Description:
By secondary structure, this protein is of the alpha+beta class. It contains four helices and six strands.
Amino acid sequence: MVSIAQDLNRSVQLAMDDMAAEAEEAESEDSETEQSVDTVKKDNNLSVEQSGEKSEENVSEDDVVQNESIDDRMETETSNVSHTPSLEGYSAQETEYARVLLMTGMVDSASSIIYISHYPAGSPVADGYEDSIKFLDPTTVIMGEYGYSGSITYASHGDGNITIYPMPSHWHQEDKSPEGYRTYAQEILDEAETVYVEPGNNRDIINIIDSVIFDYYD
């Protein structure tokens, strides 16, 4: 009986030892789990902080690049302005002629001589026919070096606008009577077009003025 009791006590003791060992092992696993969780949290926090630092660095770098781009653009614009030639020293009339030539292209650009004529208001549309319809405004005629070089007849309004008259190079209408000239002259006035003359690029204007001779024969 004593032997049985001893065996039973040993079995109970072994069972209790096993339970204690299992409990200790469980506590150890819980501790390791907590440490792992803490490590993950620390890693996540570190990653977030590093990400924030990188974002700030990227934003800072973008700001620097943008500021440099703005500075470069301003420097370029300032340089362009400082290198734009001035029209000072060129007459207002020749500047207007050059702008009209540049905008309309109605006179051959190869012409080295540009002939200029001015007519007062009330001048006949059909030159040489006093009974013809009259221009209401003073007009300017710009002609190329040769007859085939083209011409343009216009009235300047002093505000950047001009009225261009579709004048023929020769009067070849079928009706050569005074009435025929009056009719054709009226058609020219009716078909006139008022346009705005763009200021253009100063360099182009100067190139035209410097490359031609303006010959006036009013």
